[in-house]
Design a protein that fits this description.
heterodimer; A: 452 residues; alpha/beta; Rossmann fold; 4-stranded mixed beta sheet; 10 strands; B: 186 residues; 5-stranded parallel beta sheet; 22% strand
């Protein structure tokens, strides 16, 4: 299904979609307030962007450095060219450990690779431990936002599913009560899991360590109680040096939720005695994106979600309307690189207002890339309904006579034609839009009468 | 061909232009580090306690199971550090000492040597961190200068209690980890 169709469905519940819009805008506002307290904010964005430029120009060297240093620290490094290989590496580690149940903290990469269904098919119980992710997992849904996975749900929805799954009191919608129930439920899972999976926020080439940020502490609860830690990392998450963490950590949480830092920022350098750490370095389309000069910058993304919170389309269409693991503006420039046909409507799900670019902590030119993807998609798809009318328009603008006649004709026609014809389904521009009020005469005619 | 050489080969074949790493300039920090640090900790929903308040709460039985390896709290500690962190599943309070704090965000740096077991600050129901008030830096750049090239197997910034806002953006303290962070400046 296309983005407009999905968005229309989301908008059916007007009260809920209004709440969604306002809540995300509130998060965007928090981001603004806290970023204004840092006088060097713009310098930090510039630094982060330049560090990532350096990374993307030397990715092979940094990956080799990371591998060497991580191995020296006793971490087992694996390489996966695609989602399938990533998943099979995870499964083979679990089978080797004879592990039937795992806990997993937030990892957009494992969502991208569809790890959960893959493992479940092999009889492994996967428990997502981030509260928002556990909620959507109970509902068999993917996350609708990369930082706020359950932002599309109201507490009534959550109360209902918790009553069903965790036997909480029917109708009790108190967030503290519901969170406490999840805490008790997940505590048992943490204590029982032999293997914990986490994502990675930053991998540091210089030291071979990697950093994971959470507010809930769920990544650490999983890892420190399990015998084996598997970290899944996209190859673009590398940064050169430990000191560079300072730049990215100052930007990440402030951009994401308007807080100065996440409450836990864990640096995993080597496993505790008697335990194992594995890291899987995953390509899955990233090297292809690196080869696309116009879109290369999209790989700078640190997954803060700020572009989603600010986007007038995302806020009003919901994460699911994108049908892509990473939704919103950044998802709309990443996903077409993975499957141009499937994600062909996403770069059009934008007003090109540029707000995403303005808030991006690593200064990705998101709106320009959205525009550039539109060119690629139009080239690949050929003529569409809209482009036919564009061609017609082009002919009219070329001939002064045609322009003059068409103007007079349109003014007459639009006044007399019934709305059903103007707003018919073939005119996609007429959907949810009103035509402007028509002037009685053209500017030329007006000038002749009043100034001529 | 292995995936490793395939991935690295693909990147190398692009022959991308090398761009220089920027230098991070020195940024100004708060003139009053302690005041900023406390403000940050409170914003993260941490609490600031005195050592007497903590001792009083322990005496009154608020925290039945207490672990601390710190000499000044040895007398309150009624738990030994287990070999297996699972044995701390019902630990009520852990008291540890942080290495330094960061004024701009309230983050406190800890390493393996400060934790005993890595699970301790997460599995304990409540966490108290002692911090020398002279050990404060202004921002994260200074923080990583201080961390330097330490080779601890695990390093951690804790800036507050475990928290979540995943239910309608309502802030709830105590998601999976410690339900409180009690900061004691010494």
């Amino acid at each position: 299904m296309s983005h407009p169709v999905q968005a229309a469905e989301f908008l059916q519940d007007a009260a809920k979609s209004k709440w969604h819009d306002e809540t995300l805008w509130f998060v965007r506002d928090k981001r603004d307030k806290i970023s204004h307290t840092i006088p060097e904010w713009e310098q930090l964005r510039e630094l982060a962007s330049k560090i990532k430029d350096n990374v993307l120009g030397n990715l092979d060297t940094y990956l080799e450095d990371f591998e060497r240093n991580a191995s020296k620290n006793g971490i087992k490094v694996h390489w996966a060219k695609d989602a399938e290989e990533h998943n099979s590496i995870v499964l083979s580690i679990l089978q080797e450990k004879n592990c039937k149940a795992i806990v997993k903290s937030k990892s957009i990469l494992t969502e991208e690779c569809h790890l959960n269904p893959y493992l479940e098919k092999s009889g492994i119980e996967v428990v997502d431990t981030d509260l928002g992710e556990r909620i959507v997992q109970f509902l068999n849904q993917p996350p609708s936002h990369i930082v706020l996975p359950a932002i599309h749900l109201k507490k009534g929805d959550i109360s209902k599913i918790f009553h069903e799954k965790l036997h909480t009191e029917e109708g009790n919608e108190d967030p503290t009560y519901l969170t406490q129930a999840a805490r008790i439920h997940l505590r048992e899972k943490f204590l029982g899991a032999k293997v914990a999976i986490t994502g990675v926020n930053f991998g540091i080439a210089e030291t071979g360590e990697f950093v994971v940020c959470t507010n809930e502490g769920n990544a650490d609860m999983g890892v420190h109680l399990a015998d084996v830690h598997i970290a899944c990392m996209g190859i673009e998450k590398i940064i050169p040096k430990r000191e560079h963490l300072s730049v990215f950590l100052r930007l990440l949480a402030r951009s994401a939720t308007g807080q100065s830092i996440t409450n836990y920022t864990s640096h995993f350098r080597s496993p505790s005695a008697g335990r194992e750490t594995h890291i899987i370095l995953v390509d899955n389309g990233r090297t292809a994106q690196l080869g696309r000069e116009t879109f290369r910058n999209s790989l700078k993304c640190i997954r803060c979600g700020a572009c989603m919170n600010t986007c007038p389309i995302y806020r009003r269409s919901g994460g699911f309307s994108y049908e892509s693991t990473v939704p919103g503006p950044i998802g709309s420039i990443l996903s077409p690189g993975l499957d141009l046909k499937k994600y062909s409507t996403l770069p059009f799900a934008s007003t090109l207002c540029g707000s995403c670019t303005d808030v991006c902590p690593v200064k990705i030119n998101i709106h320009e890339q959205l525009y550039a993807w539109r060119q690629e998609i139009t080239k690949a798809q050929g003529t569409s309904g809209k482009s036919l009318s564009m061609k017609l328009g082009n002919g009219i603008f070329k001939s002064p006579l045609a322009y003059k006649i068409s103007g007079t004709l349109m003014r007459a026609a639009l006044k007399t034609l019934p709305d059903s014809l103007i707003y018919n389904p073939l005119n996609s521009y007429g959907k949810s839009r009103d035509l402007p009020e028509l002037p009685k005469e053209s500017f030329k005619d007006w000038y002749k009468i009043n100034r001529g | 061909m292995s995936s490793r050489s395939e991935i690295l080969g693909k990147i190398k074949s692009l022959k991308l232009e090398e761009k220089p790493l920027p230098e991070t300039p020195v940024f100004a920090v708060s003139p009053n580090l302690e005041e900023s640090f406390i403000y940050s900790i409170l914003s993260n929903k941490g609490e600031v306690w005195t050592i007497q308040e903590l001792e009083g709460k322990i005496h009154s039985g608020t925290f039945p199971k207490v672990f601390s390896a710190l000499p000044e709290f040895k007398s309150f500690s009624n738990q030994e550090l287990p070999a297996d962190p699972h044995d701390f599943a019902d630990l009520d309070l852990a008291i540890i000492r942080g290495q330094f704090g960061v004024a701009e965000n309230g983050a406190i740096w800890l390493e393996d040597v400060d934790l005993g077991l890595r699970a301790v600050p997460f599995i304990a129901e409540h966490l108290a961190i002692l911090l020398d008030r002279k050990q404060l830096v202004g921002n994260m750049h200074q923080a990583y200068q201080k961390v330097g090239m330490t080779e601890s197997g695990f390093g951690l910034f804790i800036a507050g209690p475990s928290k979540t806002a995943d239910i309608e953006q309502s802030l709830v303290i105590g998601a999976h980890g410690a339900k409180s962070l009690l900061l004691i400046l010494t």
